[in-house]
Specification:
Blueprint lengths: L5 H14 L3 H14 L3 H8 L9 H16 L4 H35 L19
């Protein structure tokens, strides 16, 4: 059973997909995230790798955790404790595993130069030259 609500899982997947520049991950998961309750405004800020200004407390905790993890390959004690207090040890394991899975998947899709369907617009460029 998941420790993280669907909205938070999809929010996390968008962060990971953008951090590793994985357009196919974004293409699949942005609509799911929006249906799960992530706002278009928040998705827009994530697409630009900017801190969204209107996050819920749960989103802020997850955003801080994942952006620190991607930028430093570690999280500060305060970030870890905030995540642990809100989601527990199982939530930390789940979020880290979710992030790792989508980082791996996104990198595989990027290496294979997996395109999004023709006509689909992604708000950032793929890391490869077309």
């Amino acid at each position: 059973m998941s420790q993280l609500p669907l909205r938070i899982r999809e929010f996390a997947i968008l962060i990971t997909g953008r951090e590793i520049q994985a357009p196919y991950v974004w293409y699949i998961h942005e609509p799911i995230a929006l249906r799960a309750g992530i706002t278009l405004e928040t998705a827009g800020f994530l697409a630009k790798q900017q801190h969204p200004p209107h996050l819920t407390e749960d989103e802020r905790i997850v955003y801080d955790f994942l952006t620190e993890l991607h930028h430093t390959h570690m999280v500060q004690d305060a970030t870890y404790l905030a995540m642990r207090q809100r989601f527990g040890d199982a939530g930390i394991v789940e979020l880290t595993a979710l992030d790792s899975y989508f980082a791996l998947l996104g990198q595989q899709l990027n290496v294979a130069r997996t395109p999004v369907p023709e006509g689909v617009i992604i708000p950032f460029n793929p890391p490869w030259k077309a």
